[in-house]
Specification:
The structure holds three protein chains of three kinds.
Chain A (H helix, E strand, L loop, with lengths): L6 H15 L5 E5 L2 H5 L2 H15 L4 E5 L11 E4 L5 E4 L7 H9 L8 E5 L1 E3 L4 E3 L35 H6 L4 H9 L2 H10 L12 H10 L6 E6 L8 H8 L1 H15 L3 E7 L3 H16 L15 E7 L8 H8 L23 E5 H5 L1 H7 L1 H6 L8 E8 L5 E6 L4 H8 L9 E6 L5 E4 L9 H6 L8 E6 L4 H15 L5 H19 L4 H17 L3 H5 L2 H9 L1 H10 L14 H5 L6 H9 L3 H11 L3 H7 L3 H5 L11 H13 L4 H9 L9 E5 L3 H12 L3 E6 L7 H4 L8 H13 L3 E4 L9 H7 L2 E4 L5 E2 L12 E3 H9 L9 E5 L3 H12 L3 E5 L11 H9 L3 E3 L2 E8 L5 E14 L5 E13 L2 E4 L3 E2 L2 H6 L24 E3 L2 H4 L4 H20 L30 E2 L2 H5 L6 E3 L2 H8 L10
Parallel strand pairs in A: 1-2, 8-9, 8-11, 9-10, 12-16, 17-18, 17-20, 18-19, 20-31, 22-29, 23-24, 23-29, 24-25
Antiparallel strand pairs in A: 1-3, 3-4, 4-5, 6-7, 12-13, 14-15, 14-16, 21-30, 26-27, 27-28, 32-33
Helix pairs in contact in A: 6-10, 6-14, 7-8, 9-10, 9-11, 18-19, 18-22, 19-20, 20-22, 22-23, 25-26, 25-29, 25-42, 26-29, 27-29, 29-42, 31-40, 35-36
Chain B lengths: L4 E6 L2 E6 L4 H7 L23 E4 L4 E3 L10 E3 L3 H17 L14 H8 L16 E2 L5 E4 L8 H10 L4 E4 L6 E4 L16 H5 L5 E3 L11 H14 L1
Parallel strand pairs in B: 1-5
Antiparallel strand pairs in B: 1-2, 3-4, 3-5, 6-7, 7-10, 8-9
Chain C lengths: L3 E7 L5 H7 L4 H8 E5 L12 E7 L2 E3 H13 E7 L1 H5 L11 H11 L15 E6 L9 E3 L6 H13 L12
Parallel strand pairs in C: 1-2, 1-3, 3-5, 5-7
Antiparallel strand pairs in C: 4-6
Helix pairs in contact in C: 2-6
Classes of the chains: A alpha/beta, B alpha+beta, C alpha/beta.
Chain lengths: 1048, 236, 175
């Protein structure tokens, strides 16, 4: 190969290159970046190579870099002359024969095809591949690529990184040629300044101005350096850029060298990036061979060379003065600036350092002009930035977006949001130097200024998405642990300050932290930020300061309540299932007791943890399932059904009496204190049970005729038979709890009377008002709110529904209403404005409703209820919705369209949510939230009135049974602490000896499910649908537990 | 080239200065007290201890020892925030190693101790680390006690810049940093050591001391060493 | 007005701080006018009483016994003062902190003993892994450093807290 001496040779080479990129035969290119190789791309390449050789196929095989979609690796692109380039995803070596077979017939293997590219803007050139394959989406139509603008990544995954010809083919080195021919370095600097390009390493200093400093510095030797010491956890943009397109970096640097008058360039690259090192070394050799590096570049009188230096992996060497120290052979410690490297850099000579990505932007700006560049991005932050989008999103990978793009776009549109059933909580930008941005702030534009205002930074472009399984305290601890171990030790704030910050955070995650330490940590964080010598220390506290600002409640949980909701901090929980249970049931304990055949002990243990075990065993939302580690093997242990089994075996048999006596025997000596509980729902019953157990005199006031609240009056008989609940209430009564029915507080008895008559009052009044929708026609006869409807059925008076009924809503009340109607012989349809997967109702209940003949209409919002002349409901008109932007719950917001559909019906049930009885709440004189719920102290549940506590739906808004019971249990503990001045609940449910040895074997059976009645039988009556586990099934299910409560 | 005369404001007062001087030099020349530990007259400044932080134009905090003065600069040498930060830095140094003053040769003559007193430290809010650190007694005349070392690097610099021997350097990183002689040999085996004792006199605490002194008896001749350093700097 | 209740306690220290307390000279009379010394190594009471207004604690927390004493004191005292360097920084007692307790006891009572080499277990409180300052375990209201603290500083602190003022101490050497 000859040196490029003139434009003729240059153009000839370009033609030669194009014949490789768009050959006269099919071309198959395998994505062979580190990520692709990690997923088996080498095997795919070898299989292809072998098959092509074996069969003597006329196919050009190439190894290219990465196209960015990490979660779809390995990627293979296939091109037939005249056709679009088709990208295949998740290709394995075993797919190769199929791919080649299909290709020989001009086809693309359909199950592997992901998208197509008809033409590609390399910025420096425009390539037309061809048109065709109408069945395939264009790459830009896929959510992952939507809105992406590939400038830096313009060549990645499309050309072979180890072949300079392919780079030249797509317009490479044209910008350099132009700059050298023009011979006006100053005007190039002006162009870079006008483009508003800012350093992509994180700090965002204007590149043009930096270049100007170097250009003006007078010295016999000047250096330019590329900082490729990418070291943030979770960030790998630079690695991919160099691996996939090393010449793009070289071209930027050579232009930089020419216009600033530098004679030597250095790439300081991480030694842990072997593939990048390999490709870069090869690219430097090729460039020298072609006369693009060295003396008389491209035949012009300009001499410049680039050397590659491998860094030893110290994070701090990403700081420019530490990097220079490292290049000089000293240990990588920063020094104070000024003097800046432009004045005194490498070997004391003027030096300019830019990040990898900054260099990639140079050639496009030179060719397309600054105006083109400033069009992209936001006013102050022009151009694009490559981000590595990782963490709890469905699509991960490298994403290049215009600066100023809001975070929602990254998380939901490109990332596809969290996995099903999870919610995204926060995004960490800028790696260990950045901060956490909570989901409420996802409209935040991702640019230098906005992120800085939020206490974060752009950094090199890491973007780690976190969901509710991430503990923010642990995240802060993790990042401090990282910067702590990477601190160089030169300045005191960073060296000792981070050590102490880590010490404090370790204490928080172990449950030994104090509130005073939280204040100290905040002050320490600000001190480290404001006084450290270099960028490492100055930014290291960001993760702590931002998580403390936006997730203070999680810190409080760890410090005050000693709880980690995410279940990450092991010292703060017994096991993942226990941690997720609102009642914090010791689940491994009852499973083991049952496994040991100690059914009575198991019942006692269950009841002491949860005084409504048979009811919750039927209707709980079972958050424990989501946490169970057994699901990493097959599926979660059916904990809910096992405790239902344990409870049924006592409550509904002659074992009731002896066990009721056993539990009553645990009652502590009378304390002489009296407590009033208002409301006999799950929260009230639970509180009453525990308060009585510790010896208080408890009276429950209930304005209905029986105890149970929603369990009794809203949940239908076929889900929870009334006799089951009645037995539980009876056992609670055996502890001495007194009930006053028909005693509505506010009417029969006043709060003042309670205050006078009792030492403490617990308000658990629930949410009994059905929300009314603002809808024309709700005044018509046949429009029923869900709760009164369910209640009248539960008390034996069936309202007239006609033949057809529609239910508006997607929660449990909606599903219960529809299933109840079906049992009354009514045709029921549920209308919901979002999709099925978004329904808040328990999934099993939705499935059961469908089996029973309930119809569903999704993406439908109520428009108006139509009546006849006599004021009876005749139809519900709904407006079809489509899904719009993501809202703060991480679900897409339904947007009403003009399409109206009429559903004929005789009744409409409104099940759009329940609220507290506002009249009562307002009259109480207690401080309320906007929704009418009581304001309480999060940790003590105290209301604004002394001795008055509140819990359950009355403080949280409509929730579910287990959450309400969790509040009841906590309220009992807090009330007892207040009345007795001591913590007496520890060990209240203790006294059971059971195995704490890891089980030698666990059952290999899949999850046992309860048998169900057949749908035809179900709708004919009110019999309970779920039969429950058999003796053998429950026993075996308990043997499926992996016992993650055993540690050490 | 003669240095240009400029003036800056220190705590509101106009102070004449020579361009190229540091804020610390100008402020101390004007009789201001700015605390410092790693600074020593005559040695190159490294900006490591961060005690001399001052606010520039009411905002950004910079170390006075390494920041050159500029015409029109307004410097604030103390504020509640700066005082709190300085105090915290001293607290951090006190917990980092084992500073048991009551049994230290430098008790009563220690720069760290007197800084703690002047900054009003009466207790330390952080947890003492109590690291296990060695004592180097191998040198015939001197002792190196890592328990008292604050890593200010004055010994390293005085040896390299004034004595020209460069016996000392820093190894490790972060909280594990440690001063070493040569390639981590015992001091007594360091062939480059000239036995001059400048490092000992430059040490602000009891980390380096002459042998034979008991508690409270080691009084450093820091000023003498600094004077020698400054004279050498001038003659260079 | 009834007199305030004052107590002094000696944990892992050398008693030097108490000596300094005795060095108040005639200042002790001023203190005695305002407060009764209800518990101290200097008086006979055997149990720490309830409702103490001010307690001066000398010494570091080194053993299980020190810790439980300190917790009792904290629960029964309004204002708790760390008296002297051992209470404030753990000082000399902390010099053992880099050595594991078992190794330390073996070294002293077995390797270093001429007669009856054995680690005593009867009648002696168990050592904690490290000697630590008081505020690592309980909230401390005032710190009075010094080895020992100066008598005038003790007097200044005592008179202030006994009169209910925020103490203004003379500049005391730290460490």
């Amino acid at each position: 190969m000859s040196r490029i001496e003139d434009i003729g040779i240059f153009n000839a080479m370009r033609e030669e290159g194009l014949a490789k990129v768009l050959p006269a035969m099919p071309r198959i290119a395998v994505g062979m970046g580190t990520c692709g190789r990690g997923n088996g791309a080498e095997g795919v390449y070898q299989a292809l190579s072998h098959a092509i050789d074996r069969d003597g196929l006329d196919i050009r095989l190439a190894a290219v870099g990465c196209f960015g979609a990490c979660s779809e690796e390995p990627l293979v692109s296939v091109w037939l002359p005249g056709q679009p380039l088709v990208i295949l995803r998740r290709v394995q070596a075993s797919d190769v024969e199929r791919i080649l077979n299909d290709l020989s017939r001009g086809r693309i293997t359909p199950d592997l095809a992901w998208c197509k590219i008809e033409e590609w803007d390399h910025i420096t050139a425009h390539l037309r591949y061809g048109q065709g394959f109408p069945e395939l989406p264009l790459w830009s139509e896929l959510p992952f690529f939507s809105g992406q603008k590939k400038i830096v990544l313009r060549n990645c995954g499309l050309i072979a990184p180890d072949d300079i010809d392919e780079y030249i083919a797509v317009g490479g080195y044209q910008a350099l040629y132009k700059v050298l021919i023009d011979g006006k370095p100053e005007s190039v600097i002006e162009q870079i300044k006008a483009s508003k390009l800012r350093g992509r390493g994180g700090a965002g200093y204007a590149t043009g101005i930096k270049w100007e400093f170097l250009a003006k510095a007078k010295d016999d030797r000047k250096y330019i350096i590329c900082n490729a010491d990418e070291g943030d956890p979770g960030a790998y943009m630079n690695r991919n850029e160099i691996e996939s397109d090393p010449h793009g970096l070289l071209e930027g640097m050579i232009i930089g060298g020419y216009v600033t008058g530098a004679s030597q360039g250095i790439v300081y690259v991480r030694a842990e990036y072997p593939l990048a090192v390999h490709h870069l070394a090869r690219a430097i050799d090729q460039a020298r061979e072609y006369g693009i590096l060295g003396a008389n570049i491209l035949g012009r009188p300009f001499h410049f060379d680039i050397e590659m230096v491998e860094g030893a992996g110290a994070f701090v060497c990403g700081e420019e003065t530490a990097l220079i120290a490292s290049l000089e052979g000293f240990s990588g410690r920063p020094r104070p600036r000024p003097p800046y490297p432009a004045q005194k850099g490498l070997q004391g000579k003027p030096t300019n350092i830019n990040n990898v990505e900054t260099w990639y932007n140079i050639a496009p700006i030179v060719l397309k002009g600054p105006a083109w560049f400033t069009e992209i991005g936001s006013t102050k932050s022009a151009g694009t930035k490559v981000f590595s989008l990782v963490g709890k999103v469905q699509n991960t990978g490298l994403v290049e977006m215009p600066l100023g793009t809001p975070l929602t776009k990254f998380v939901y549109d490109i990332g596809g949001g969290a996995a099903a059933g999870r919610t995204v909580k926060a995004v960490q930008t800028g790696g260990p130097s950045g901060g956490c941005i909570p989901h409420e702030m996802f409209d935040t534009a991702v640019d230098y200024e906005t992120l800085a205002q939020l206490g974060s930074i752009m950094g090199s472009g890491g973007m780690v998405v976190m969901d509710e399984d991430n503990c923010m305290v642990d995240i802060a601890r993790y990042f401090i642990e990282f910067t702590h171990s990477e601190s160089c030790g030169k300045c005191v704030p960073c060296r000792v300050g981070l050590d102490q910050a880590l010490e404090i955070l370790n204490g928080f995650t172990k449950g030994t932290g104090t509130a005073a330490q939280l204040t100290l940590l905040n002050e320490l964080g600000r001190m480290i930020r404001d006084t450290s010598l270099c960028g490492l220390g100055q930014t290291a506290p960001n993760p702590v300061l931002t998580t403390m600002r936006h997730f203070r409640h999680e810190f409080d949980d760890h410090i005050i309540a000693k709880r980690c909701r995410a279940g990450v901090c092991h010292s703060l929980a017994l096991s993942p299932c226990e941690n997720s249970c609102p009642l914090h049931m010791n689940i491994p304990r009852f499973l083991d007791l049952l496994k040991e055949g100690r059914a009575d002990d198991a019942f006692e243990a269950v009841f002491l943890d949860n005084p409504l075990p048979a009811s919750t065993g039927r209707v709980c939302q079972h958050p424990c399932d989501d946490r169970c580690r057994r699901q990493t093997v097959d599926s979660p242990v059916n904990m809910r059904e096992v405790h239902r089994f344990i409870a049924d075996a006592v409550l509904l048999t002659d074992r009731f009496e002896p066990l009721a006596a056993r539990i009553a025997a645990r009652k502590k000596a009378p304390t002489g204190k009296s407590v009033a509980v208002v409301g006999a729902g799950p929260a009230g019953l639970t509180a009453a049970f525990y308060l009585a157990l510790v010896g208080h005199d408890v009276t429950v006031f209930e304005n209905k005729a029986e105890a149970g609240g929603m369990l009794r009056y809203a949940i239908p008989e076929y889900r929870l038979p009334k006799r089951v609940l009645a037995q539980e209430v009876e056992l609670i009564r055996r502890l001495g709890v007194k009930f006053q029915f028909g005693a509505g507080v506010g009417s029969a008895i006043t709060l003042n009377e309670l205050d006078e008559g009792f030492d403490a009052v617990f308000l658990a009044i629930g949410t009994w008002k059905e929300s009314w929708v603002n809808l024309p026609g709700t005044e018509l006869k046949g429009v029923l709110p869900a709760l009164p409807f369910l209640e009248s059925v539960a008390t034996g008076t069936n309202p007239a529904l006609g033949r057809k009924m529609t239910v508006i809503g997607g929660g449990n009340a909606a599903v219960d209403s529809a299933r109840t109607a079906v049992r009354m012989g009514v045709d029921a349809t549920i209308v919901y404005r979002r999709e099925r997967k978004d329904m808040p109702a328990i999934k099993e209940e939705v499935d059961a409703a469908e089996q029973e003949g309930v119809k569903f209409l999704f993406l439908a919002a109520p428009h108006r209820i139509v009546g006849d002349a006599r004021g009876n409901v005749r139809a519900l008109e709904i407006a079809k919705t489509r899904l719009g932007q993501y809202d703060s719950s991480g679900r897409r917001k339904p947007v009403v369209t003009a399409e109206i559909v009429r559903l004929d019906c005789d009744a409409v049930v409104l099940a759009v949510g329940e609220t507290v009885d506002l009249d009562f709440a307002r009259a109480s004189g207690l401080t309320l939230r906007e929704a009418g719920t009581f304001v309480v102290d999060r940790f003590t549940l105290e209301t604004s009135r002394p001795n008055f506590f509140a819990g359950g739906d009355a403080i949280s808004g409509a929730s579910n049974v287990s959450n309400a019971m969790g509040f009841g249990k906590k309220a009992a503990r807090k009330i007892d602490e207040r009345l007795m001045g001591a913590k007496r609940f520890a060990g209240l449910a203790g006294g059971f000896q059971y195995s704490m040895e890891p089980p030698e074997t666990t059952s290999t059976s899949p999850r046992h499910r309860s048998a169900e009645l057949k749908p035809a039988v179900r709708v004919a009556g009110e019999d309970e649908v779920m039969v429950g586990l058999t003796d053998a099934e429950a026993g075996d299910e308990s043997c499926r537990c992996l016992r993650c409560d055993i540690r050490g | 080239m003669a240095q240009k005369k400029i003036s800056i404001r220190i705590d509101g007062e106009l102070v004449p200065a020579l361009e190229g001087k540091t804020i610390l030099e100008v402020a101390r020349g004007a009789g201001r007290r700015i605390p410092s530990l790693c600074h020593m007259d005559g040695l190159k400044d490294v900006g490591a201890c961060r005690l001399c932080i001052v606010a520039l134009n009411g905002g950004r905090l910079v170390p006075a020892c390494t920041t050159p003065v500029q015409e029109g600069l307004a410097v604030t040498t103390n504020s509640p925030e700066i005082a709190a930060y300085r105090r915290m830095i001293v607290e951090l140094l006190l917990v980092e190693r084992n500073h048991v003053c009551s049994v230290c040769v430098s008790n009563g003559h220690c720069e760290l101790q007197s800084l703690a007193t002047s900054l009003g430290v009466t207790s330390v809010r952080f947890r003492y680390r109590y690291p296990s650190l060695p004592l180097d007694l191998s040198q015939e005349r001197f002792v190196l006690d890592h328990n008292r070392c604050i890593l200010c690097s004055r010994c390293i610099r005085v040896c390299a810049e004034v004595e020209g021997a460069h016996v000392w350097d820093m190894m490790g990183r972060g909280i594990h940093s440690r001063v070493i002689s040569e390639l981590d040999q015992p001091w007594g085996e360091a062939s480059t050591c000239t036995n001059c004792g400048k490092c000992v006199q430059a040490c602000p605490t009891g980390a380096m001391a002459e042998k034979g002194w008991a508690v409270e008896e080691m009084v450093k001749r820091t000023a003498q060493v600094a004077g020698a350093a400054v004279r050498k700097g001038v003659s260079l | 007005m009834s007199k305030l209740k004052l107590a002094t306690v000696w944990l892992d220290g050398c008693s030097g701080c108490h000596m300094s307390l005795l060095d108040l000279d005639e200042g002790i009379l001023t203190v005695a006018q305002q407060a009764d010394l209800v518990y101290s190594p200097l008086v006979d009471a055997t149990e720490f009483p309830a409702g103490v207004d001010v307690t001066l604690v000398e010494g570091a927390v080194s053993s299980q016994e020190d810790l439980s004493k300190l917790q009792t004191i904290r629960a029964r005292t309004r204002l708790l003062v760390s008296l002297g360097d051992c209470a404030v920084t753990a000082n000399v007692p902390s010099m053992r902190n880099t050595i594991p307790v078992q190794k330390l006891l073996q070294f002293i009572y077995v390797a270093g003993a001429d007669v009856n080499p054995a680690v005593p277990t009867q009648g002696v409180p168990a050592l904690l892994p490290q000697a630590r300052p008081l505020h690592d375990y309980v909230k401390v209201d005032f710190h009075l450093p010094g080895c020992p603290p100066r008598p005038d500083a003790i007097l200044a602190l005592l008179s202030a807290v006994l009169e209910g003022r925020a103490p203004k101490l003379p500049a005391v050497k730290f460490g």
